[in-house]
Amino acid sequence: MESPVKPQKLENRPLKLGALKYLLSGVLFKSGVFAIFSPLPLVWYRLQSKDFLSYLIVLFSNTFTLVFLEALVLFFPSGPKSNDLIWSSLTISAVSYLTIVAPVSLGMARFIRAKLPLSHVLIKTFLLVLVSVVLIWVSVAAMRGQSPIEFYTSTLDHFSTQVWEIAKNSGEPKITEEELRSSLLLETPSSIAIFIIVSIWANLILLFRINPNQVKEKLGIGDDFYKTFRMPELLVWPTIGAGAGVLLLHGIGYGVSINLLKVLLAGYAIHGIGILAALLDQWKLFGIIRLLLFVTLVLFALPLVIGVGFFDLWFDFRNKFRQT
Fold first, then answer.
1. Which terminal residue of the chain, N or C, has fewer Cβ atoms less than 10 Å from its own Cβ?
2. Taking every pair of C-alpha atoms in the chain, what is the biggest distance, in angstroms?
3. Residue that is last in its domain, among 221, 255, 281
4. Do 297 and 188 belong to one domain?
5. C-alpha of 203 from chain center
6. Using CA of residue 266, residue 207, residue 91, residue 82, what is the dihedral sign?
7. DSSP state letters, 25-45
8. Cα 124 from chain centre
9. CA–CA distance from 79 to each of 75, 76, 82, 83, 155 (Å)?
């Protein structure tokens, strides 16, 4: 359970458009380093107002800001590029922004308002983004006259060729070109999915740390929300099934199993990190020592962290820590 704090009703405050802060999302998306937090301003605004029209105005204002910044990069300092390059770059930026940031901000705000457990907010927002990505992928493939699989393969073939050329120019590659291509084809879906999961969770953490308009108190969420995160029990069996598929299947079956397993284990990693945080609280370890332990475990003992999250269903580690 998140916290015994009594939920309160969120105020329905209309957005006052025109302030520069409403364009922050597009700027963050273009920044590169902070792009992962680009949904956060929109989630913040959406939690303050149920006015969907105002949200759309803010969303598309950020999209135009992103396109404007992309155009500046294309034109300066080396001057204008070809029309094809300009239009393709602007289109990719705008579509990428709307495909990921819009469903993340809408989903997070909607599910947080519904007072769902944070694990459900994470999973349902992820599924919403996944549907958005698949729909765009299928639509672009259809416009190109290709099947979704053909479009996926041809795109990654082109990308792997570029990566291989860079690797050759940088020195002697440690793998062959075919191994690089196979690795990209196999691991790209789960890599994208894990990035989306981490992005959603990072935005949730920062949102409740900032706590705009006391949203935590109004929704009944305590300060220990990330320490009490639990993956739904029903996901244990798909995880076990995906693990069995990795061991027993070949070809497409193996590819589906390994990608599904990696995505589910990403959720259990977050679960395990929450347990680790609770344990460090019990030991009263804070500051630099706590940070060093976190970094060490995540970098060098991630399978242990994932295992703790996965087996928590049966062992309830938080309760055992409290008892001891």
1. C
2. 67
3. 221
4. no
5. 8
6. negative
7. HHHHHHHSTTGGGTHHHHHHH
8. 12
9. 5, 5, 10, 12, 28
Q: For 137-163, what is each residue's pLDDT tens digit?
A: 999 889 889 998 998 998 888 888 888
Token pair for residue 301?
A: 């003992």
Q: How many residues does the chain have?
A: 324
Q: Residue 235: give the domain boundaries.
A: 230-324
Helix (H) or strand (E) run with residue 129 in it? helix 118-143
- Enter the tokens of residue 142: 């259809």
Q: Give the C-alpha separation, 40 to 35, whole Å.
A: 10
Residues 60 and 201 in one domain: yes
Give φ, ψ of 144 to 5 degrees: -90, 0
DSSP 140-175: HHHHTT--HHHHHHHHHHHHHHHHHHHHHHHS--SS
Tokens of 175: 């793998």
One domain for residues 304 and 211: no
The verdict on 119 and 236 lying in the same domain is no
Do 69 and 187 share a domain, yes or no?
A: yes
The pTM (predicted TM-score) of the whole model is: 0.83
Q: What's the structural domain count of the chain? A: 2
State the Cα–Cα distance between residues 22 and 42, nearest whole angstrom: 8
pLDDT grade for 241, boundaries at 50, 70 and 90: very high
pLDDT at 16: 46
- Structure-block tokens of residue 120: 């459900």
